[in-house]
Specification:
The chain is mostly helical. It has 2 domains: 72 residues, lambda repressor-like DNA-binding domains (434 Repressor (Amino-terminal Domain), Orthogonal Bundle); 64 residues. The chain is built from 8 helices and no strands. Helix 2 crosses helix 3 and helix 6 crosses helix 7. The longest helix has 27 residues. The N and C termini lie far apart (76 Å). 9% of the residues are buried.
Length: 157
């Protein structure tokens, strides 16, 4: 070779992508224990069209990608590119909060000044917003009680 890099044609790239997506569609179907016919019905398409998508002859449409991601929890990075795990791992606000709390606790353990400042701020917060905090806690408690009662009612039925 004379130092030039071989560039794949657009058709070659498309065929490779469609075969990869088809292979991963099949993995999804087998994971859930469904037939091609059942998957096709789930997506609102004929079983022949679904079979062609699974075998890499047709590209699945946006509707299929959407359903796989939102209803099955399939990662589109994995489905389209083969990157990561099959299932989408949602990051929630709780995950971010947990990360920040862990970071804060680490600093509290290592740095007495940080411990002093955070605990001082917390005491000030409790003093200045005592009534608001009590009201919020009361409302949360009532919501929990209501949910518990409705869950008990459902269990009795």
């Amino acid at each position: 070779m004379n130092g030039t890099m071989k560039v794949e044609s657009a058709k070659t790239i498309q065929n490779k992508a469609m075969r990869g997506i088809g292979s991963r569609l099949k993995k999804v179907r087998l994971h859930f224990g469904h037939t091609q016919k059942k998957m096709a019905a789930y997506f609102g398409m004929g079983s022949n069209a679904y079979g062609k998508a699974e075998n890499g002859y047709n590209a699945p449409g946006l509707k299929i990608f959407y359903i796989l991601a939102t209803r099955f929890g399939i990662s589109l990075d994995w489905l389209v590119l083969g990157w990561g795990s099959m299932f989408y791992e949602k990051k929630t606000a709780d995950d971010e909060l947990s990360r920040e709390i862990n970071e804060m606790l680490g600093l509290i353990d290592k740095l007495p000044l940080v411990r002093h400042l955070i605990l001082g701020y917390f005491q000030e917060l409790k003093l200045n917003y005592h009534e608001v905090i009590q009201q919020e806690l009361s409302e949360k408690s009532q919501d929990t009680d209501k949910r518990t009662l409705s869950e008990l009612d459902e269990e009795e039925e």
